[in-house]
Structures are given as C-alpha cells and as structure tokens.
Design brief:
This protein is of the alpha/beta class and 410 residues long. The protein has one domain: Aldolase class I (TIM Barrel, Alpha-Beta Barrel), CATH 3.20.20. The protein has helices spanning 20-26, 38-50, 55-71, 75-83, 116-121, 165-173, 197-208, 233-250, 268-281, 302-308, 319-333, 348-356, 366-371, 375-389, and strands spanning 92-94, 97-99, 103-105, 126-132, 145-148, 153-156, 181-186, 214-218, 258-262, 285-288, 312-314, 338-342, 361-364. The strands form three sheets. It has an eight-stranded parallel β-barrel with strand order 3-4-7-8-9-10-12-13, surrounded by six helices. Strands 5-6-11 form a three-stranded antiparallel sheet, with no helix packed on it. The longest helix has 18 residues, at 233-250. The two termini are 35 Å apart.
C-alpha cells in the first residue's frame, strides 16, 4: 500500500532496531489458539442471516439483543461465563487504570451507551462508548454503513449519530461496577463551527466526566465536515487544555485520563505535531488510528466501492498504515504517553505485533462484525500464547520492544 509520508511527498523511514527477544518472537510462525469454542460456530450459522440485512439494521438488531441480555437476570453472568478470559499474563496498568487485559472495544459500536455492560461481559478490558456530541443529532443520510466482505472491511459515514452526551450520561450513571474500564469518546456537533468547537466538547465533558474512567477527544472522523482541521497543533492544544481543565473541575477527587484519537491519513509532520502537543500538555494517551479515506489495495471491485460513496474505511486495509502511525508515535514519545492501537486487528498475532510496536492497549471494532462475539476471547488467548512463547511474563514487558527509544534532544 503506498502512502505519502511527508508534506513534500518525500519518504521518511524510522530506524527501529528490535530488542533481542522481540527479534526472535516476531520471526516465528504465528500461533493460533488450539481450539475454537463452539460459540464461534454458532455465530457462523447466524452471520449469513445478519448479512442479509442492511449493515446498520443488523447493527441495531445486535445492539438490542445485547441490551436485552444486560437487563435479563443472570444475563451478564452468562456472557462472562461464556466469553471472559482471566489470565495473569494479560493484566496491566495503563494511564493509571488497572486492567484485566489490553483488549478494548473501539468507539462506534455502542454509540449511545446502550449495551456497554454486555460488551464488558464479552471479555473486553476496556469499553469505549460514543462518539457522543454536545447536542443530539441524527447523523448523515442513510444508507451510511457498508460491508466489503472481500476485504473484511467496512465503509461508514455515520456522522456521529447519537442522542447527545447528556442522554448517555443518564445510562452511564446506572452502571454496575464490572471488571472493565469504561471510556467515552466525544466529538463535535455537526452544526457547531470549529470556532465554537471547544465549548461543544466542554459541554459533553461536563455531562460524562463523573461516569467514566477515561475520555477520548475525537478530532479525526472523516464524516463531520471540517473536523479533521482540529488536529492541527494550533487548534488541538487549546481544545485539550480546556477539556483537561473541565475534567479536573468536574471530578476533583480523581484524575480522569484524557486521550486523543488521530487519523491514519496524517502526514509525518502532523503526526509529529500531535506527539509534541501530547508531551507539552501531559496528555495521557493517543489512539492510533481512526478510519481512513484512502481506498487503495482493496479486493472489492472499484464499482462497488464507488457505489458506497464517501466515508471512513476500517478493517484490515487500514492495518498497515495504522501500524506505521503507531510506530512513529512510539519513536517520538517513548513511554511518556500511553498508546492504543486500532485498525484491522482480527487475531492474537496482530494484537501481539501492535503491542511490540508500542501499544499498551489494542481496540477492535470491524473484527466483531465479521468474527462475532467470541473474537475478544480468541484474541486474548492467542495473545497470551504469543507472550508466553516469547518468554514474557506480562503484557507490559512486551510493550514497545520492537521500536527504538526516542533520541534525547540535543
């Protein structure tokens, strides 16, 4: 896949000598869990039925089912018994939070915080709801979500459809304490101009801060006009400063980690600028990456892709670029800022690669659509096997072993 990595189109390569143990394990043949549970077979039976429905309709069906299971007496216990993984090698501490494992649900699936407890029961160490906005909004016109089965990918132009941060906060307030960390992803209301974006983000922050374990600023969705301009250093720094101050004012008793989610389409200079802002402001984390507007290297016929129209592409086609952005951020930031990897992670091998490249946490979204609810369990087991084969006693020991530490400034 060809990507322009600099403003002037000039290629930039990062020298990333591998630690000795990482060099050994990354050259070995990938390992798959020895046995796939029968629940994977069950999803394979139901998947063709779901795929007969429009993608967004199928999503609503699944969300309502999960919401129903969460309300059913014993429903969450049943999901945990089926899908959770409790393995000490996967436990870690990231941006001040104790996590059972490094698997996170990416924002976009549970937009309105309707089934976050059910997702937590599926074995995720973190669940991220949203994207939520300061004001309720319907999003873009339908259809706006499309499957690309040949690529195991999705194209979406949802446009932050949600009932608003205040409505989600009501549901989050009823949260029963579980074994997962809860995050919220917030974006700009479409009708709000960038000049007034900070107040919109602050409004969402005030509603959500008391109910979440971490907060993510989304300035990288391609589906809200002008939003990605907020990734510029001049716009991003004051936004993060105001949200940080609001978090501290709303919840003075604890520090709520603040993260930003960036696009895979940033040129190198802009990736570096985000890293600089993160260091200057003491940002807790960066999620790399959101969906891409690129359409290169796809197996799906061009006519089908064109028929889908504009939107962000997710799944395996974005994996290569997402990994590049992750490596570059790690090379710039070292261990000072926690990194979360997202984009095309479908198995334990991909999760292991991202962790060795500097991620403390890996998030999945598109993989759930194609692989079903047993995917978090399979990734967790596969990751644990890779860690043990490599000789790591914990996932934390593997973080960033494949990336050279940042050079001290002269």
């Amino acid at each position: 896949m060809a990507w322009h990595s600099g403003r002037d189109g000039e290629k930039f390569s990062i020298e990333t000598p591998r630690a000795q143990n990482a060099e050994l394990v990354l050259s070995r043949r990938p390992i798959s869990p020895t046995a796939r549970p029968s629940r994977t077979v069950v999803y394979r039976l139901f998947k063709p039925i779901l795929f007969l429905l429009r993608a967004e309709t199928a999503h609503r069906v699944v969300m309502r089912l999960l919401g129903w299971l969460a309300c059913l007496p014993g429903g969450l216990w049943w999901l945990r018994m089926l899908y959770s993984v409790d393995d000490p090698v996967l436990r870690l501490r990231a941006f001040g939070l104790e996590l059972n494992n490094p698997l996170g649900l990416a924002a976009g699936l549970d937009k309105d915080a309707e089934a976050f407890e059910a997702f937590g029961a599926l074995g995720f160490g973190l669940v991220e709801v949203g994207t939520l906005t300061g004001e309720p909004q319907p999003g873009n016109e339908k259809p706006r979500l499309f499957r690309l089965p040949r690529d195991r990918a999705l194209i979406n132009r949802m446009g932050f459809n949600n009932h608003g941060a205040a409505a989600a906060a009501v549901r989050l307030k009823r949260r029963r304490r579980g074994s997962f960390a809860l995050g919220a992803n917030i974006g700009r209301t479409k009708l709000v101009e960038n000049e007034r974006a900070i107040e919109d983000y602050v409004k969402s922050t005030r509603s959500l801060a008391p109910h979440v374990d971490y907060l993510v600023i989304n300035v990288s969705s391609p589906n809200t006009p002008g939003l990605r301009a907020l990734q510029d250093k001049e716009s991003l720094a004051p936004l993060l400063q105001r949200v940080r101050a609001t978090l501290d004012a709303e919840v003075p008793a604890r520090r709520i980690p603040l993260l930003v989610k960036v696009a895979p389409d940033l040129v190198d200079a802009d990736i570096d600028a985000v890293a600089e802002v993160a260091l200057e402001l003491g940002l807790d984390g960066i999620i790399a990456t959101n969906t891409t507007i690129a359409r290169t290297g796809l197996a799906t016929p061009a006519s089908e892709i064109e028929a889908c129209g504009a939107g962000g592409l997710s799944g395996p086609p974005v994996a290569e670029r997402a990994l590049y952005v992750l490596r570059r951020l790690r090379a710039k930031l070292g261990t000072q800022v926690t990194l979360i990897a997202s984009g095309g992670i479908f198995d334990g091998d991909a999760a292991f690669e991202r962790i060795c490249a500097g991620a403390s946490i890996v998030q999945i979204y598109t993989g759930l659509i194609y692989e079903g609810p047993a995917l978090p369990q399979r990734i967790a087991r596969g990751l644990a096997q890779r860690l043990r084969q490599a000789g790591f006693t914990s996932v934390e020991a593997a973080i960033g072993v494949d990336v050279a530490p940042p050079r001290p400034s002269a």
